[in-house]
Amino acid sequence: MSLESTNISDIMNKDVKVEEQNQTIFAISRIMSDNNIGSVVIVDNHKNKNPVGIVTERDIIRIIGSLQPMNFQLHLKDHMSGPVITISSNASISDAMKIMYDRKIRRVIIIEEDNLVGVVTEHDIFKLLMNNKDLLSNVIEDSVPIP
């Protein structure tokens, strides 16, 4: 088992919370709070689930920090991070780690034919490494960047 031979779809979270761009920041904050998650993927519509952006905890904090309560009623389109960084479900964990490291992001969206199928976070990769000490040893020996 190696990072190059392990498929990203083996560790991705398939229960991704999505919402359309016309939702408010308050509504997204509620979804994140109710589901104890750190991000919501923004899609063009619920049918196709084509990811067009992402709202993260960091985005919410930035909005709250502006001290403009009216921002909670603004649509996501004005506040989401984008373009969303995606990777194919056939990619390796190593590929995902490199993208996360190079782009300085904490999560990558997994797609098949432009449709959302999952998400992998740095926490998912960390759990994999901690549960597989041989894999962790290989990462350390190979000097693979860990986001």
Q: What is the topological layout?
A:
Blueprint: E1 18-20, H1 25-35, E2 39-43, E3 51-56, H2 57-65, E4 86-88, H3 93-103, E5 107-112, E6 115-121, H4 122-131, H5 133-142
Parallel strand pairs: 1-2, 4-5
Antiparallel strand pairs: 2-3, 5-6
Helix pairs in contact: 4-5
Can you tell me about this structure?
The protein has a single domain (8-142), classed as CBS-domain (Roll), CATH 3.10.580.10. The strands form 2 sheets. The protein has a 3-stranded mixed sheet. The longest helix has 11 residues, at 25-35. It has helices at residues 25-35, 57-65, 93-103, 122-131, 133-142; strands at residues 18-20, 39-43, 51-56, 86-88, 107-112, 115-121. It is α/β, with parallel strands linked by helices and 147 residues long. It starts with 17 loop residues before the first strand and ends in a 5-residue tail after the last helix. The mean pLDDT is 84. The protein is built from 5 helices and 6 strands, in the order βαββαβαββαα.
